[in-house]
Amino acid sequence: MNGDGNLVIHNLSKEFVNSQKVIQVLQDINLSINQGEFISIVGGSGCGKTTLLRIIAGLETNYQGTVTLSGKPLNGCGLDRGVVFQEHRLLPWRTVKDNIAFALNNVAPQERERIIQEHIDLVGLTGFEHAYPHQLSGGMAQRVALARALVNRPQILLLDEPFGALDALTRIQMQQEILRIWEIEKNTMILVTHDIDEAIYLGDRVVVMSSRPGTIKKILRVNLPRPRDRSNVEFAYLRREIYREFFASKDEDLVYAI
Ligand SMILES: Nc1ncnc2c1ncn2[C@@H]1O[C@H](COP(=O)(O)OP(=O)(O)O)[C@@H](O)[C@H]1O
Ligand SMILES: [Mg+2]
User: Fold this and answer.
1) What is the pLDDT of residues 164-213, one digit of tens each?
2) Choice from 16, 49, 53, 160 to test ligand 1 binding pocket (greatest atom count within 8 A of CB)
3) For the domain 1-77+190-258, what is the CATH code?
4) Which of 50, 215, 246 to mutate to test the pocket of ligand 1 (most atoms within 8 A of CB)?
5) Over the chain, what is the mean pLDDT?
6) Domain ranges for the chain
7) Among 77, 245, 59, 50, which Cα is nearest to 164's?
8) Does the beta carbon of 49 sit less than 6 angstroms from any atom of ligand 1?
9) Which uninterrupted H or E stretch holds 145?
């Protein structure tokens, strides 16, 4: 790995122009993420979460402020950052193995097979190497997307609501998988989710965003050992704190109903 691996976002603002109307999407975002940290980002729909991840991924380059990785400004996309989107975005005409192989870069030919197989095994898809995306369940397809994002050993994995389309039980299984992979890979995880329990269950810190313009409202540290217990008192306290941010204490009955 080059440098300290820390990601520093300083005074980041982003606007879009839609039919001559300027929309301020992100405003004065300041966030420093340490190498190896697990960060969850929660916020309502349209608050700029995907835009923020796209900026970190290098897919969006037109913004104000600075974003540095290991002290160097981002310069477009790079193999040091992998992304998993809500939809798996696999190529339907390629097998599991070929979807992963397609993403693998800068590797000696004799190493390719081993690395691809290692990542298929890592995400628990041993035996499905030659399956096509339409033959996979939603959870399995998302595992392939994970393997594809990890195959170049990125320092940072960006996850944009990756489990949003999965049923509740598969979602919980995938959360376990992400933790297992994080413990092996020791990379930085930045997970965007609208699921507050998921954010607390996974994150070292939970970043709560406000809507229009998207700002950071609050950052909560989750000081709970893993594996975490969702019924723990401290867990419930954090859940309530985050809901309180969303409802801005307007409706205490609502907050206590949660
Ligand atoms: N390429 C774009 N052009 C114009 N407006 C955009 C573009 N991408 C996103 N937006 C607008 O920016 C806002 C934030 O979008 P997004 O980052 O996708 O939010 P979230 O992921 O939190 O739901 C929305 O109002 C959206 O319509
Ligand atoms: Mg989004």
Assistant:
1) 888 999 999 999 999 999 999 999 999 999 899 999 999 999 999 998 89
2) 16
3) 3.40.50.300
4) 50
5) 93
6) 1-77+190-258
7) 50
8) yes
9) helix 138-150
